[in-house]
Design brief:
Elements lengths: L1 H22 L1 E3 L13 E6 L6 E3 L2 E9 L2 E15 L2 E7 L7 E4 L8 E3 L2 E6 L3 E7 L7 E6 L22 E4 L2 E11 L5 E4 L3 E10 L2 E7 L2 E3 L6 E4 L2 E6 L2 E2 L3
Parallel strand pairs: 5-11, 12-14, 13-15, 14-16, 15-17, 15-18, 16-19, 17-20
Antiparallel strand pairs: 1-5, 2-3, 2-6, 4-5, 6-9, 7-10, 8-9, 10-11
Length: 245
């Protein structure tokens, strides 16, 4: 009886340890070698007390409307996935930080500032705008995502196995382009843009149904849009990063 109790307690403790481990994850995605990056900020992230990891910072277009005209500006964007708690460090390279603000203000995130670096903690996923010295058009868009459960490429799986799934269009890490600048997604298909992938072009769903576009990667429009849905139903767009600017 004592042996059974000991085995039961050991099993419970092991399960608890695995649960705790599963709740503390941090996934970062290296930028493709030929990716265009931006150097206004250096962004780092770590689990509490762990080693800092530098994450890629990309340029992203934003639109300032001034005197009834559109003025396209280049802001910065970074992303990572996590469970549990992480610490984030943002170093501004253009100027010393006099004031810092993290939106949405409703989250109540107040960073610690030391010269040109600010730090703060997160214990849940958030999409944030980090603004230095009141500049809202050259800010940092930081997507602190939950762990992606939709990734069809499971740990230890050979990527070649994904090709056997005829209903899956998979873009792995790297830079991808389409013939004619457009990918037309037919009914019943899932498009997955993995973290660390950059898709240059337009992904569109026209006259289709039961389509999913998911992932953690970036879709950069060479024209006016990265994602387009027309006359379709049951279409899910989740997790991918794009701009219509």
């Amino acid at each position: 009886m004592k042996l059974r109790k000991l085995i039961l307690i050991s099993g419970l403790l092991l399960g608890f340890a695995q649960t705790i481990g599963a709740q503390n994850q941090l996934i970062t995605y290296p930028a493709p070698q030929e990716a265009e990056l931006k150097d206004d900020f250096t962004v780092k992230v770590r689990q509490p007390g762990g080693k800092w990891q530098t994450i890629a910072t990309y340029p992203v277009k934003v639109d300032e409307v001034k005197e009834a005209r559109h003025h396209v500006k280049l802001a910065s964007m970074s992303y990572f996935d996590f469970d549990g708690e992480v610490e984030v460090s943002v170093t501004a390279h253009k100027e010393e930080i006099e004031t810092a603000r993290i939106r949405p203000l409703s989250y109540g995130i107040t960073p610690q500032v030391s010269r040109n670096t600010l730090t703060f903690k997160l214990n849940s996923p958030h999409n944030l705008s980090i603004e230095v010295n009141g500049d809202i058009f050259h800010n940092l868009h930081l997507f602190a995502n939950p762990i992606d459960r939709n990734n069809p490429l499971k740990p230890g799986m050979n990527p070649k196995k994904l090709k056997k799934n005829r209903n899956l269009i998979y873009f792995g890490p790297g830079i991808h382009t389409f013939p004619g600048d457009t990918l037309n997604v037919p009914s019943g298909k899932t498009v997955y843009v993995a973290g660390g992938a950059i898709v240059k072009g337009l992904i569109q769903v026209v006259n289709a149904q039961n389509v999913k576009v998911q992932g953690r990667g970036i879709v950069i429009p060479n024209r006016w849009a990265g994602l387009r849905i027309v006359n379709s139903k049951n279409v899910t767009i989740e997790g991918v990063i794009s701009t219509q600017c």
